[in-house]
Amino acid sequence: MATAKTGADSGRRALDILFAFTEQRPLASVRELAGELDIPVPTVHRYVALLRDMGLMEERDRGRYRLTMRVAALGRAARKATPVVDLAEPYMRDLVERTGECALLIRLVHGVPVCLHRVESGRRFRLSFEIGQPLPALRGASVRLLVGGLGPEERRRYVADALAAGALPPAAGEEEFLRDVARDHGRGWAVSSEEIDEGIWSASAALTDGSATVAALSAPCPAFRLDAAKREMIIELVRATAADVSRALGA
Predict the structure, then answer these.
(1) Domain enclosing residue 182, as ranges
(2) Same domain, 173 and 72
(3) What DSSP element (H or E) covers 58?
(4) pLDDT for residue 78
(5) Predicted pLDDT of residue 123
(6) Is the domain of 134 the same as that of 202?
(7) Higher local confidence (pLDDT), 81 or 208
């Protein structure tokens, strides 16, 4: 039991040393680490040597150390493992509070657009799909953004596969749909009006992790509650929120 406790304490001290490095203080000496963490200098030397052997720390100059890119890789792995729904949830709630409308998170799941998450507003209205339910494959602003995340040939294959599976065709035709996909992908946002639900206008923006589109954030609104000014406001808020989520994803 004592050995297990000693091992846990050792691991905790090694992690404390890693966590002592920040963006504001990327370099530190053994003596600085010892003083900040209240650990004897010889002990810090021992842990620094261990972390160096593991490739997590390296000496920069004159006894000052920094974290290596191997630690950065761990951070990227953690971001990849974080469910996008959990990460986007607080941003979506803020968007709902600011717009007074609901917010949706939509993603391609095995080539099918699916509503992953929905945050309701205080002024509820009934949508035609629920969380986990597929959306029309070739209709809506979010779908165009998700398809835009594919390569040009993949986009055409997506349309062909969707039509072969019995999807409703794009309202404006296949070629116009692909042109709209390219346009919306280039600017990172899209709008739609009554493409899926009668009387519903929607603004969507892409969530990206680097250059990859991972999901779309959408704010569907009853058209009767909107004027030109509110449409512009919602577009800007959806775009800003998507940018915030994308930064959190590591974009």
Answers:
(1) 82-249
(2) no
(3) strand 57-61
(4) 56
(5) 73
(6) yes
(7) 208
